[in-house]
Design a protein that fits this description.
With 299 residues, the protein is α+β, with helices and mostly antiparallel strands. The protein folds into 2 domains: 156 residues, Regulatory protein AraC (Jelly Rolls, Sandwich); 111 residues, Arc Repressor Mutant, subunit A. The chain is built from 10 helices and 9 strands.
Length: 299
């Protein structure tokens, strides 16, 4: 059974910073999620990234932010190597002393709930912010781990988050947010791990609410607040994300994929996939293959 959840030891390793070169490792990163906030900065080449239900093409100098718990993937779209910086960090570790300033975690949750907030920042939008230098400094500090490197990383990541939040505010971002209680949020986070592990089995929202010791209506309301979709929609989305990797990187039939990912039959798989992705599974395969061909062709 394929799992989308990626474990991270945020207690002992609240920060990660490294450079990934697709000529030396995986060309594509399958759909996955974790509790880290993740930021990708593209140094060379081009890639396609997906976050929840949106797709973006990234070019040199572009930056993308993946919210904690968002399902995201990175795909190669060219035979030419891509090189990018990866920052992963526990957003709760970026504490702010001013009690009148909302925590970064609350601000990110608010931004995620406001569907129009961009997560892809193009190079021209970052031109005056020295983002490349900041990202590479994070990688160097993490690699060398000289005295006080964790303090330095904390400072750099706070700077980066302030840059992005200020940019959002200029676009009309409203940080007001009514948070779910931390205990309820943890319960629902645990249930999303359960959904991931059991998505190929019949799952009833009523049973999931009971596992969280919540009424159906209270669970449903809090789940939508945290994830921006109903629990039933989230279960379908998890299944579609698992199917996506098989569609793009195997020659398995649609019947086989539908069985492996927990759909009742192939017809149900195609219908659900099109509802979420906007295209059929077959069209998805063809469009990804065509994108590769276009990037292989000379300009």
């Amino acid at each position: 059974m394929q799992y989308l959840f990626e474990y991270g030891d945020m207690l002992n390793a609240p920060y990660e910073a490294f450079t990934l070169d697709t000529s030396k490792g995986a060309m594509s990163i399958d759909p996955h999620w974790h509790y880290y906030t993740e930021i990708i900065y593209l140094l060379e080449g081009s890639i396609m990234v997906e976050s929840d239900e949106e797709s973006y093409i990234m070019y040199e100098g572009d930056l993308v932010l993946f919210y904690p718990k968002s399902i995201h993937a990175i795909y190669s779209i060219s035979p030419k190597p891509a090189i990018y910086v990866v920052l992963k960090f526990d957003i709760n570790a970026l504490s702010i002393s001013n009690s009148y300033t909302p925590r970064f975690a609350v601000i990110l949750q608010s931004a995620r709930n406001q569907k129009n907030m961009q997560i892809l920042f193009q190079a021209k939008e970052l031109a005056d912010l020295h983002i490349k230098e900041l990202m590479l400094t994070c990688v160097r500090e993490m690699h060398e781990q000289d005295y006080g490197y964790d303090i330095k990383l904390h400072s750099l990541l706070c700077d980066l988050m302030v840059y992005l939040i200020r940019y959002w505010r200029k676009q009309g971002f409203n940080p007001d947010f009514t948070p779910v209680s931390s205990a309820d949020e943890q319960n629902i986070n645990n249930i999303t791990e359960y959904i991931d592990a059991h998505s190929d089995e019949p799952l009833l929202v009523e049973d999931l609410a009971k596992q969280c010791h919540m009424s159906y209506s209270y669970f449903a309301k809090n789940f939508r607040t945290l994830y921006g979709k109903s629990c039933k929609e989230y279960i379908e989305f998890i299944k579609v994300c698992k199917a996506d990797g098989m569609l793009l990187f195997t020659d398995c039939t649609l019947n086989y994929i539908s069985q492996e990912t927990g759909f009742t039959d192939c017809s149900h798989f195609i219908k659900t996939y099109k509802k979420i992705k906007g295209i059929t599974p077959k069209q998805r395969r063809l469009s990804y293959a065509r994108m590769h061909q276009e990037h292989e062709s000379p300009m």
